[in-house]
Design brief:
Blueprint: E1 68-76, H1 81-99, E2 132-137, E3 175-181, H2 184-197, E4 202-213, H3 242-248, E5 267-276, H4 278-282, H5 286-293, H6 322-326, E6 337-338, E7 341-347, E8 353-363, H7 370-380, E9 387-397
Antiparallel strand pairs: 1-3, 1-4, 2-3, 4-7, 5-8, 5-9, 6-8, 7-8
Helix pairs in contact: 1-2
Length: 417
């Protein structure tokens, strides 16, 4: 078996990832055949298997939502465009291997004793756990590398919404990686390896661990609950709803102008760290809690209905009920795909839990999706008494990696394509 069949060039031939001449974007184990235009095919729920890395769209958007998240935003440190492009190729090669359950490069052991291993090793012996890795580019990246005229208008800076209390250390980023898996160690391993591969060229700006998915993209799956105990994402877009995905999530060739053509097949991601005032919420009466959401807590049925999926009668809800204000019928049909996760990060030093929702939403255009929806919610939602937005970022998520010769961001960096 030659070196390429083992998943990469030998360390004895080339020490370290990201070095001059390393070109794994074109060949790496686990990715030899181009897929159809339908995007990655999901593994069966609970299989612990691999989610296909290649496709017209990046995995981790419409694919089934896994149980765990490790999200990281990065600042770019290099000023060299070619070096950054090489990093994207190296990251793509590493992602191909990790999503297939394989170690990066030559692995965690067996290489030169005098050099660090290619892989950090904490996922040895673990299954792929349906790992997906999704990359996005922040607005600030377009201030670099001569990309100013390639920034899509749909990648809009988010305005300051009423009630925002954003922590600058948890806001923004030149690029992001969303790692989702059913095993938290697999997700953490993926981000750790990519950060290691990018050492000296990128640095982690902030990151967030998540558990307990708060939305589902799988039809007929039980709707998950958030930390307030309510079912969330009852009417979320399912990964099988091709028409709704095309209408609300995937960027079309007809969108925007020439400078956004590279985003065809991609999507736009809004990430918001939303802290919940857990202690205050836990002292609210059941009736107050149900009025705030506009659903009953047990079944998840809308006010006046018997079952969760019964069509809601919005006027039966209080005018400031969350479901009433967020429903597409109240917002000119605005629909976003959510993939949020719960989080707990210890306490705030005052005996209160630092816990809440790490909100992730994909849409075709931020200006027509999250921004108008959040303006309405920020101004009127009864839920605002119990939550606060403390972190924020927006990213352009490029189309998927088509085959073993493709790499993340190729359509943007067209000179190298």
């Amino acid at each position: 078996m030659n070196e390429m069949q083992r998943g990469g060039p030998s360390r004895r031939a080339l020490i370290g990832w990201g070095g001059a001449g390393l070109a794994l974007g074109a060949a790496a184990a686990g990715g030899g055949v181009a897929l159809s235009d339908d995007g990655p095919s999901p593994a069966k729920a609970g299989s612990g298997g691999a989610v296909e890395f290649h496709g017209a769209h990046q995995a981790g958007i419409a694919t089934p939502v896994q149980d765990r998240l490790h999200f990281a935003a990065f600042d770019v440190k290099t000023e060299d465009r070619a070096e950054f492009v090489q990093l994207l190729k190296d990251w793509t090669a590493a992602a191909r291997l990790m999503t297939a359950g394989k170690p990066v490069g030559e692995g965690a052991y067996g290489g030169l004793a005098e050099a660090p291993p290619d892989d950090t090793g904490e996922a040895l012996g673990l299954s792929p756990s349906q790992l997906t890795l999704t990359v996005g580019f922040g607005p600030s990246l377009f201030d670099r590398f001569g990309l100013a005229d390639r920034r899509p208008a749909a990648l809009a800076d988010l305005p300051k919404f009423p009630g925002d209390n954003l922590d600058r250390s948890r806001t923004g980023g030149d690029l992001c990686v969303q790692a989702c898996a059913d095993d938290p160690q697999v997700a953490v391993h993926a981000i750790r390896n990519l950060a290691r591969v990018g050492f000296g060229k990128v640095a982690v700006r902030w990151s967030q661990l998540g558990f307990g998915k708060t939305s589902s993209t799988t039809p007929d799956a039980q709707t998950p609950r958030n930390l307030m105990g309510f079912k969330d994402g009852t009417r979320n877009i399912a990964g099988t709803e091709t028409a709704r995905l095309d209408r609300h999530v995937w960027v079309s060739a007809s969108d925007g102008d020439a400078k956004s053509a590279w985003m065809t097949g991609g999507s736009y991601l809004v990430a918001r760290r939303i802290r919940m005032n857990i202690e205050t919420w836990d002292r609210a009466s059941l009736q107050e809690q149900e009025d705030v959401f506009g659903r009953d807590k047990g079944e998840g049925a809308p006010v006046g209905k018997a079952k969760e999926h019964d069509a809601p009668f919005l006027k039966a809800m209080k005018p400031d009920a969350h479901v009433r204000l967020a429903h597409p019928d109240s917002n000119g049909g605005i629909t976003i795909l959510r993939r949020g996760y719960s989080f707990t990060d210890g306490t705030d030093g005052l005996g209160r839990l630092d816990a809440g929702l790490f909100f992730l939403a994909y849409q075709r255009d931020v200006r027509e999706g999250f921004i108008p929806l959040q303006r309405r919610l920020a101004a009127h939602d009864a839920l605002n008494e119990y939550i606060q937005h403390v972190g924020s970022a927006v990213f352009a998520v490029p189309p998927g990696v088509r085959d073993s010769h493709d790499w993340w961001g190729r359509t943007l960096f067209s000179e190298e394509a």
